[in-house]
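Quick one: co-fold with S-adenosyl-L-homocysteine.
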Amino acid sequence: MEKMVNHQLIPRGIKDERVIDAMSKVPRHLFVPEKVRDRAYDDCALPIGFGQTISQPYMVAVMTELLELKGTEKVLEIGTGSGYQAAVLGELAGKVYSIERIPELTAFARANLDTTGYRNVELKTFDGSVGWTDEAPFDRIIVTAATPEFPQPLIDQMSDDSIGIAPVGTRFSQMLLRIRKDKDKLTESRFTPCVFVPLLGKYGWEE
Ligand code: SAH
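Sure, here it is.
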């Protein structure tokens, strides 16, 4: 874990001390299936079943840093997967809501979050491309699956002073897009190129 932080995150420019601390704390090996446990801290994404992956540690760090979390925020994640990103968010924010479309993965993530003691993370199985209307608005929204555009319902569910981040592009390659919302004003910026599994749903790609 220390090696992951010192060799993969810090040399590549991750600076936010809180993000570095959080990723030093969350036991990533308890969020991957047993057969890949020995590779949990490797510099890559890993299979978690159902054709899905837990993201590369560096990508988790970059996206988390771009969210500029201070500790009290209400955060929505789309694409729970293993629950690892949700746990990192749980360390850094007030309350985390995370949506996954595959019920078996919601159950996997729930078990992982229970084992590791993250009690401020709520999960549900649903098409996350439409957001979580009952709990909106959110101070931060993070989409951890590739999407053709930033889903409009998610922009609508962002609070007046908020940040949203998503890998936007084609099914095969994307760029991290950050949207800042300041009342009615939206500002977009683009960051690192990346490759995520597709967001499948109403505002993603067809299933
Ligand atoms: N954040 C995860 C990795 C995400 S992989 C982690 O830390 O492990 C992307 C996940 O998004 C997959 O589990 C996939 O099933 C899920 N997904 C794809 N489309 C979705 C949708 N419309 N709503 C919710 N989850 C979706």
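If it helps, Residues 71 and 93 are 4 Å apart (CA to CA).
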